[in-house]
Specification:
The complex is a heterodimer.
Chain A lengths: L7 H19 L4 E7 L2 E6 L2 E6 L2 E2 L11 E2 L2 E3 L8 H5 L36 H4 L13 H11 L2 H4 L4 H22 L1 H11 L13 H16 L3 H27 L3 H24 L1
Antiparallel strand pairs in A: 1-2, 2-3, 3-6, 4-5
Helix pairs in contact in A: 4-6, 6-7, 7-9, 7-10, 8-10, 9-10
Chain B lengths: L1 H14 L13 H8 L14 E8 L4 E10 L4 E10 L2 H14 L4 H4 L4 H8 L6 H40 L1
Helix pairs in contact in B: 2-3, 3-6, 5-6
The chains are: A alpha+beta, B alpha+beta.
InterPro entries (chain B): ISCU, NIF_FeS_clus_asmbl_NifU_N
GO biological process, one term (chain B): iron-sulfur cluster assembly
Keywords (chain B): 2Fe-2S, Iron, Iron-sulfur, Metal-binding, Mitochondrion, Transit peptide
Chain lengths: 283, 169
Amino acid sequence: MRTSKNCSLFSLLRTRFEELLYEKTAKGGVLVGSTNVFGRTVFCLNNRPYSIFLRHFDLPSNSPSSCHHVFPKLMVTDRLFCSVEASNGESPRCWNCNGAAASPGPFLACGLCGSVQPLNQSVDFFEIFGLEKAYDMKDKNLETKYKDWQKKLHPDLVHSKSEKEKAFAAEQSARVIDAYQTLSKPLLRAIYLLKLEGIHVDEEKTVTYPDMLAEMLEIREAVDEANESQALKQIQTEVEAKFLTWSKSFEEAFKRRDFDDAITSIERMRYYDRALEEITKKL
Amino acid sequence: MLRAAGRRVLGLGLGHRVPAAASARGYHERVVDHYDNPRNVGSFDKNDPTVGTGLVGAPACGDVMKLQIKVDDSTGKIVDACFKTFGCGSAIASSSVATEWVKGKQMEEVLSIKNTEIAKHLSLPPVKLHCSMLAEDAIKAAVKDYEAKKAKLAAGNAETEQAEKVASA
């Protein structure tokens, strides 16, 4: 990051941040947990993590006269994982009244003052629905939980709130929709599970597995040539069965934490998924 | 620094934007042309000794590309080529262009066809660059397959000759 004081953008950021920090801490809100990470002090403000390289940093008292903020280097890192609970054992706090979250999990609205909370990026899709990070979704009532969330986040319930809270509610709602769409489809769910483990499957590489590709080519050709729904449905059943086989294979590989096998399973599932898409389009 | 970074990102985007001739959806007219008027779509007999088959896939998007070349044994020249691709418009166009470009060339020559040339010809956006990579890999795989077949045949002939020699001795 820039250290030159001639950069007007940087100076602006610095001033704004100083004011922000002063305002928030003076109002008694949410300066939670500061730890040293690679020589930087990391702290969380309103559930947004900030990382700052400090030379002097005095926590201001509530009187305006004794504020010394020197921020030679400033870095705002939204992506930094901020485990507010982990840093000092407290649950996230409301930006408005500083009350603690009523229950574990995504902090949606403050139990004490009712204000809508901002999105906490560190809460993953499984946590949103209170599920464990597993592939199997049978009997987990995902749809019911999703509908419950949407009832809580319904736009009508926030239309009387401030602009800021409306924005928070919109963000929360979008994330819940994303979560539901990802978790409800087996292929996306599998890819997301690996993503949480730090493995990215979507590499744009070329493969030359002759047997698998020959099989896929055959299937796609068959779909191309089939023109009546009877024949298409036949192919659909076959491909769905194959998808299921590899889906189970992924589940097993994931439980064993054999990620190479898991990726292979996902690749095959994706090919079958494409074929099924094409069939659906034709039907 | 943030401003400079922003400018750089914008510059990158603008540099790859499609020229004015493009349709509103963003596919270059060449890509659309290859899609509407497919050339060289088809299949050769896989077992024909003069045919090399390259079968490649992109698991990230579930694409399959088959590119076949027919080679004149005596001169090593590619006399015909055909393809069959299941994938997006860019993948289909890339393989179509590949078959056009390999026709009439020597086998060693076509190994130097780069995906960047195909991508430039079709004005592919960065997100579709891997489609042209797939086409380049398909060409290489086809050549490799033909060479392997040839080698196997030669080894097989040598064995039969040996056996005949022994038998007649």
